[in-house]
Structure formats: structure tokens, C-alpha cells
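Structure in, sequence out. Go:
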């Protein structure tokens, strides 16, 4: 069982399936992933979003583990994975790590279910290596291309990135005196979470530090890149993908409405909107989310 940095066992899911903890290496970083289910079953990858962690997929993994062997990585700088020296956390770095994970597992092609940043990473990977992906579910995984508004010039982007990186060097992780205080912040970030789920996500998402608890993610994951990923590049990559794609988005999310986005670069896709769900659709409306996943994967 993975060391959470908070406590060794959790009564919240003592009856749940306990995954195996493994590691692999990418760019000299030691990265962590969890494995649920029998490796005789087809492989399925679960890719989390920004400042999240592999344990966030626990309910989804357990629901799929009877049919698939489920692999859920902690992205670099997240969860129990290593932190990048110098703060290398662009989408291309994450895509490289996903490719390294696939090679470590050695079971391509993979079905991929991915959230937010993870969705963008999965689409980059599938565009570069279409033969390695059987199906993709991307949950709120396109919005990052549209949230920035007007595209800034290269010199503006470079100046902003340099200044923000310098600011991050002096930023200290926030320390919460108790798990309850950290849990309150988790609930504040997502009002749809049940108290039980908020507690579970918090327990696996923090590590013990002097004075209390801090989130496991590296603050430099906020840094991004001055070389913005643009729609021209996105469409070129998307156009290479040949596998079926299910796009899921939450009606109450802060991202741009998906029915206003041009998805014509995709060859085989469908889009579904889930009501009473925000950005974390798989937490906010789990049963509805899984019903769409089950139908898509069964086809």
C-alpha cells in the first residue's frame, strides 16, 4: 500500500480493493503509479489532472478493475512521484512520462480515461503514437486551450513566464495545522464533494510536514510554459488520432462550453454534457459518469 504521508490505513475504504504500488523512470525522475486488478485483463490508464493524484481515481478504478487491469500514475510533481529539478512541468513533459509509463507496462494499445490536464496529455500522446491507444475518454480535457482568451505575443509570454518562475522560487507550501483544515480547503474547492470523499481525497493528497500537513504537489506545477499550445498544433495532433474518443464535460464547469468548440479535427468522437457537475465530473456525478464510460467501453 502506498505511503500517503498522513497515516498508514484509512477506515474510509478498509473494505475496498487495495492497489499495488509501483514505480518507473522518465527523464531520470522516479515516478509512481498504482495498479488495480488482474494483469490478464486488457490494460486501462487513468490520468489525473493538475494538482491531483492517482488515488483520486479510486472509485473509478474499482468499478473497472473487474474488466481491465487499471494503471493510475501520479504525474511528475504530484502525489508520490518525484519533483522535476528546475520546474519542468509542461504538457510535453507529461506526455513523455506517459509514453515512458506505457513502455514500462509494455501492454499497448491502451484504453485511456483522463481528466483535465490529463486529458490534454492523453490526446498529445495519442496524436504522436496513435497505434498505442485503443480508446480515449477525456473529461474536461480540452478547456485549457480556450481559457486563456486572446493569444499573447511571444515576448509577453516569455516575460510573464520568467517573472512567474522567479516568484515561485520564493513561494512556500501552505501548511494546514490539521487534516480537518486541509479537508475544509478541499471542500471549498469543490462544493459537490461528499464529506467522505473530501476526507479520502485529502488524506491521500497531503504529506506530514513540520507544523501540520501540506499538499503533495510541487508548487512549480503552476508554472506552465511560455510556448503556448495553440489550436493549429492541437488540430494537427488530434487529426492523427484514429481511435474512438468520448468527450465528457460538466455543465457547471468553469471552462468554455464544449458545444462552442470546433472538434472537426477528430475522426471518431462523441461529446456528452453531464448536468449538476463541475470540473471534477467523475467526483460530482459518479454514477452518471460511469454509465457513460461503461457504454462507451462496451462498444
Amino acid at each position: 500500500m502506498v505511503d500517503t504521508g498522513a497515516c498508514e490505513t484509512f477506515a474510509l475504504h478498509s473494505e475496498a480493493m487495495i492497489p499495488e504500488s509501483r514505480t518507473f523512470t522518465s527523464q531520470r525522475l522516479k515516478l509512481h503509479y498504482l495498479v488495480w486488478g488482474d494483469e490478464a485483463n486488457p490494460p486501462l490508464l487513468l490520468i489525473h489532472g493538475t494538482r491531483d493524484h492517482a488515488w483520486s481515481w479510486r472509485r473509478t478504478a474499482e468499478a473497472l478493475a473487474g474488466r481491465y487491469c487499471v494503471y493510475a500514475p501520479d504525474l511528475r510533481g504530484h502525489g508520490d512521484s518525484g519533483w522535476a529539478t528546475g520546474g519542468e512541468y509542461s504538457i510535453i513533459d507529461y506526455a513523455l512520462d506517459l509514453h515512458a509509463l506505457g513502455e514500462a507496462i509494455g501492454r499497448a494499445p491502451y484504453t485511456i480515461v483522463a481528466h483535465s490536464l490529463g486529458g490534454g496529455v492523453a490526446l498529445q500522446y495519442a496524436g504522436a503514437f496513435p497505434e498505442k491507444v485503443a480508446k480515449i475518454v477525456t473529461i474536461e480535457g480540452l478547456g485549457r486551450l480556450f481559457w486563456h482568451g486572446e493569444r499573447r505575443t511571444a515576448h509577453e509570454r516569455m516575460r510573464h513566464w520568467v517573472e512567474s518562475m522567479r516568484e515561485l522560487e520564493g513561494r512556500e507550501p501552505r501548511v494546514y495545522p490539521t487534516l480537518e483544515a486541509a479537508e475544509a480547503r478541499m471542500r471549498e474547492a469543490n462544493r459537490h464533494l461528499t464529506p467522505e470523499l473530501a476526507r479520502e481525497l485529502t488524506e491521500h493528497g497531503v504529506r506530514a510536514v513540520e507544523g501540520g500537513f501540506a499538499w503533495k504537489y510541487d508548487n512549480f506545477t503552476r508554472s506552465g510554459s511560455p510556448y503556448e499550445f495553440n489550436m493549429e498544433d492541437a488540430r494537427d495532433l488530434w487529426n492523427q488520432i484514429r481511435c474512438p474518443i468520448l468527450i465528457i464535460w460538466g455543465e457547471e464547469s468553469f471552462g468554455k462550453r464544449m458545444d462552442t468548440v470546433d472538434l472537426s479535427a477528430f475522426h471518431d468522437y462523441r461529446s456528452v454534457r453531464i448536468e449538476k457537475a463541475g470540473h471534477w465530473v467523475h467526483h460530482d456525478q459518479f454514477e452518471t459518469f460511469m454509465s457513460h464510460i461503461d457504454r462507451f467501453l462496451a462498444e
